[in-house]
């Protein structure tokens, strides 16, 4: 019987733990062939950060970091009620721990500089590490929707920026979009009355869909399968959200109509 494939964040957390213990990057990523192309640069970036000479953290930053860690530990008591297993909590703590180490260990400047990076830039893996930790943190809070939507909006902005600069869009960038769309589909199926789905999520999905459609005549042949898969997931996400019931609005106000799709 085959085991369920871990999420990208869980795979990343496990790989970070093994690499920190001295394991070889190539051997570690070989266990996760689905994510290997994206795990490799993230792990290499983490190794470079470990070896970098960073200034000592400020006392106030350390104090805030400890307070967040204590708060996270308290929330672990309600893990069963929130539906998270102990294994996922361990993976989540490891992933978010990397972000806390960067932010409270003197690497905040690098994290801020990575915010404007694009796929293929040296700092882009650091940006992805931060996003993975942010998504894990949002899952702790019980609502990953805002983080998922924000990251999908970022992927749209990145693809548009790559196109403006005449740079190629590689399959790995499109695979990241596909994973976000799949998670939004799962969210919509499990929580069809989520207040962000009908407007902000649908707008982000529709924008991303249009960005992907504009790539059809521009991507290299090697990226076309990934592009088509991302488009299929965008169509599916849009369909699932449109079929979801419209949540009731405040008394005296009519609910907002769904965002119309382009005419065919």
Question: How would you explain this protein's 3D organization?
Answer:
This protein has 264 residues and is mostly helical. The protein folds into two domains: 7-51 and 60-142, no CATH class; 143-245, no CATH class. It contains twelve helices and no strands. It has helices at residues 8-20, 25-29, 36-51, 59-75, 79-82, 86-104, 108-114, 124-141, 145-164, 171-190, 197-213, 224-243. Helix 1 (8-20) crosses helix 6. It starts with 7 loop residues before the first helix and ends in a 21-residue tail after the last helix. The model is unreliable at 76-94 and 102-106 (pLDDT under 50).
- Cα distance, first to last residue? 45 Å
Class inferred from helices and paired strands: mainly alpha
The structural domain count equals: 2
- Can you give the helix content as a percent range? 55-70%
Unreliable residue runs: 76-94, 102-106
The percentage of residues in β strands lies in under 5%
Shape: globular
